[in-house]
Each structure stands twice: as structure tokens, then as C-alpha cells.
Design a protein that fits this description.
The chain has a 4-stranded antiparallel beta sheet, with no helix packed on it. A 4-stranded antiparallel beta sheet has the order 5-6-7-8, with no helix packed on it. The chain has a 3-stranded antiparallel beta sheet with strand order 9-10-11, with no helix packed on it. It folds into 2 domains: 146 residues, TolB, C-terminal domain (Neuraminidase), CATH 2.120.10; 74 residues, Laminin (Ribbon). The radius of gyration is 23 Å and the shape is elongated. It is built from no helices and 20 strands. It is mostly beta strands. Helix content is 0%, strand content 39%. Strand 10 and strand 11 form a beta hairpin. InterPro entries: 6-blade_b-propeller_TolB-like, EGF, EGF_extracell. It holds the Pfam family EGF_2. Keywords: Disulfide bond, EGF-like domain.
Length: 237
């Protein structure tokens, strides 16, 4: 049985997976819905007391954290959290392979200096705690500075969200309904369809080798509603 120590910030995915900060164990944890098992996403259990221990750019489970508190998950699966004792905002990449600093300067004693409109790497937090992500804006409770602060992502046209993912016909690439659920959004308004579908939205398919948008599909007596699936008109079979 896992031993937790002051579990804190919590995020539940649409699939029921639970991410949270195990604050005084200095770890980021995951409870996987399908198995009910708990695992460590980031943190080696050693409290980071110097900047060199943070090991950014390396494996998340090899990095030292310092009392992580707030946590949220971006649209592509990037895990963002406040490493409160180090006064950092940090993130684990969506593939889970690297950990990096999003914003902040290392300090274990607090800065008490809030520099708005500063570069992300120059921002000074003092015990950053809760996080809330809405669209392209990340809100941060900068607890001991007594502020709510904001980081906004600036995406090019056709891209959106905090991690600037492409949008296909008003649907974000990370949305399961993108490209009619039959492909991937690989660039702005560019769907890459699976082998059984075609069309700008991947909305068309084939029945017995005939395109679903052809007048000859289903022997002209029905509709091709899914790959190789005809729904016949009344009186036809």
C-alpha cells in the first residue's frame, strides 16, 4: 500500500485517472482508473534544496522536487504543477519523458517580489500554490505574495490551448471528436484520415469498395453509415 504524505492538488481526467501532488513526499502521483494502481510520475523523494538537484530536462522520476502543491493537466496531457518550496512552476512533458521549468527563479526562502510583465524565467514567486488552467491561460495563486498571477500562451492562427495544438474546423486536435473521430488533426484545418475514411473532415468512408458519397453506394438502395456497413432503404435488403 502506498504511503502518502499530505496529498494536495488534484486533477481528474475525463477517463477517471487521478493526478495529485504528494506534497511532503515531494512527488507527483497518478492513480490509473483502469487498474486502480498508484504510480509516481515525477520526483525521486529527495527534497530539492539546491538548484542543481532539480535536474530539469531529465527524467521526471529522477528529479528532486520541493513540496509540490497545485497541479493541473493541459489539453495534450502536459502536467503542470507548483514546486512551491523551490518557487517554480514546473511541467512534465505529455510523453512523460522530461521535466522542465515553466516559470520562476529557484529559492527556498521566498522572494516576496512580484514582477509582473516579466519574462517567464525572471518571474519571482513566493510559495506558489493552487493552479487553474482555462484555455490558453494559466492562473497561479502566488500565496505569500498575496497575488493571483497569470501566464497566457500566445498561439499562431489556427492553434489553441495552453500548449498551442492545431485546430481542425473549430475542434482542437486533442478533442476525441476531431476529424469525425476518423483521423488526426496534424495542422490547422488539416485532417489525416485513417485508411478507411476520406474527405476534409474524414467524414466519408467506403462500403464494398464504393465511396459513401457516391450515388452508387449500397447498390443505390441505402446509405453507407460506417465502413462496409450499409443501412438499406425501406423495402430493400
Amino acid at each position: 500500500m502506498a504511503k502518502l504524505n499530505l496529498p494536495n492538488g488534484l486533477f481528474v481526467t475525463d477517463g477517471g485517472d487521478i493526478y495529485f501532488t504528494d506534497t511532503l513526499n515531494h512527488k507527483i502521483r497518478l492513480v490509473t482508473a483502469s487498474t486502480g494502481k498508484i504510480s509516481t510520475i515525477a520526483g525521486n523523494g529527495v527534497r530539492a534544496t539546491t538548484e542543481s538537484l532539480s535536474k530539469d530536462g531529465g527524467l521526471p522520476t529522477s528529479a528532486s522536487l520541493n513540496t509540490p502543491k497545485g497541479l493541473t493537466v493541459a489539453e495534450d496531457g502536459t502536467i503542470i504543477f507548483t514546486d512551491s518550496g523551490s518557487n517554480y512552476i514546473r511541467y512534465v512533458s505529455s510523453d512523460g519523458k522530461t521535466i522542465n521549468i515553466l516559470s520562476g527563479k529557484f529559492s527556498t526562502i521566498g522572494m516576496h517580489i512580484a514582477q509582473d510583465q516579466s519574462e517567464l524565467s525572471d518571474a519571482k514567486f513566493d510559495d506558489p500554490a493552487g493552479l487553474f488552467l482555462s484555455g490558453n491561460e494559466l492562473l497561479i495563486a502566488d500565496a505569500k505574495n498575496g497575488l493571483i498571477r497569470s501566464i497566457k500562451a500566445t498561439c499562431p492562427t489556427g492553434y489553441g490551448g495552453f500548449t498551442c495544438k492545431p485546430i481542425c474546423y473549430d475542434i482542437m486536435a486533442t478533442n476525441t471528436s476531431v476529424c469525425s473521430r476518423n483521423g488526426k488533426c496534424i495542422d490547422y484545418n488539416t485532417c489525416k484520415c485513417d485508411s478507411n475514411h476520406f474527405g476534409a473532415y474524414c467524414e466519408n468512408t467506403y462500403c464494398s469498395g464504393v465511396a459513401s458519397n457516391s450515388s452508387n453506394v449500397c447498390s443505390r438502395h441505402g446509405r453507407c453509415v460506417e465502413y462496409n456497413t450499409c443501412v438499406c432503404a425501406p423495402g430493400s435488403s
